[in-house]
Specification:
Distance between the termini: 62 Å
Number of strands: 3
GO molecular function, one term: superoxide dismutase activity
Strand order of the largest sheet: 2-1-3
Protein name: Superoxide dismutase
EC number: 1.15.1.1
CATH topology of one domain: minor pseudopilin epsh fold
Function: Destroys radicals which are normally produced within the cells and which are toxic to biological systems.
CATH architecture of one domain: 3-Layer(bab) Sandwich
Family: Belongs to the iron/manganese superoxide dismutase family.
CATH superfamily of one domain: Iron/manganese superoxide dismutase, C-terminal domain
Strand content: 5-15%
Structural class: mainly alpha
Bound molecules: fe (ii) ion
Number of helices: 9
Largest sheet: 3 strands, antiparallel
Radius of gyration: 21 Å
């Protein structure tokens, strides 16, 4: 009888510890896997860059974010959007870390999904109509977007963003700042940190941008544009 009781106690302890482990894990951010293989964007974005970018750089943002939140359980379980929209409520000792690393997590998660193999054709549908309406033509849009990406001094991003009325704009953000705080919805974005292109393109950021158009997932952009 004693053995049965001891076994039951052990079993309960195991279930409780598993549940709390799951709960803890659920509150940790994780890097989402790519929806395509590491070499799927070749020859425009090389496999080694994708592996390092996704597995090392993005992983580092997520690891740093989780570590910063370790001492503030009340912030665990919040989304990156919630953290970034309320960044001034994040304790000052981790605010900059959260801003940079939650931003890095948000931006990169967006970036992996706005790229896809064999999607290099021009957009169709509502996003194309909006681009032509707001920038005159696809060619002019690409020219302005490329310029914004080139003009970003140091590290950052260039974005195509939509406001509540559907109007599009091109914005460049520094470091891992996001467009969330601007209240605008991202439609496409390019990472122009050197880690995104240096292995293949070295200092030629313009060549990387030109090549990147071949992997833009315009189907996803159309979905995003059609969402509220
Ligand atoms: Fe990056």
């Amino acid at each position: 009888m004693k053995k049965i009781i001891a076994l039951a106690i052990c079993l309960m302890a195991l279930i409780t510890s598993s549940a709390s482990a799951l709960e803890t894990n659920d509150k940790k951010f994780v890097v989402p896997p790519l929806k395509y293989s590491y070499n799927a964007l070749e020859p425009y974005i090389d496999e080694q860059t994708m592996r390092i970018h996704h597995d090392k750089h993005h992983e580092a943002y997520v690891g740093n974010l989780n570590k910063a939140l370790d001492k503030y359980p009340e912030l665990q379980g919040k989304t990156v959007e919630q953290l970034l929209l309320n960044i001034n409520k994040v304790p000052s000792d981790i605010r900059e870390t959260v801003r940079n690393n939650a931003g890095g997590h948000y931006n990169h998660t967006f970036f992996w999904n706005i790229m896809s193999p064999n999607k290099g054709a021009n957009p169709k549908g509502n996003v194309m109509k909006a681009i032509e309406r707001d920038f005159g033509s696809m060619d002019n849009f690409k020219k302005l977007f490329k310029q914004a990406a080139l003009d970003r001094f140091g590290s950052g991003w260039a974005w195509l963003l939509k406001d509540n009325s559907g109007k599009l704009s091109i914005v460049s953000t520094a470091n891992q700042d996001t467009p969330i705080q601007l209240g605008l919805k991202p439609i496409i974005a390019i990472d122009v940190w050197e880690h995104a292109y240096y292995l293949k393109y070295q200092n030629k950021r313009a060549d990387y941008i030109d090549a990147w158009w071949n992997v833009v997932n315009w189907d996803r952009a159309e979905e995003l544009y059609n969402e509220r």
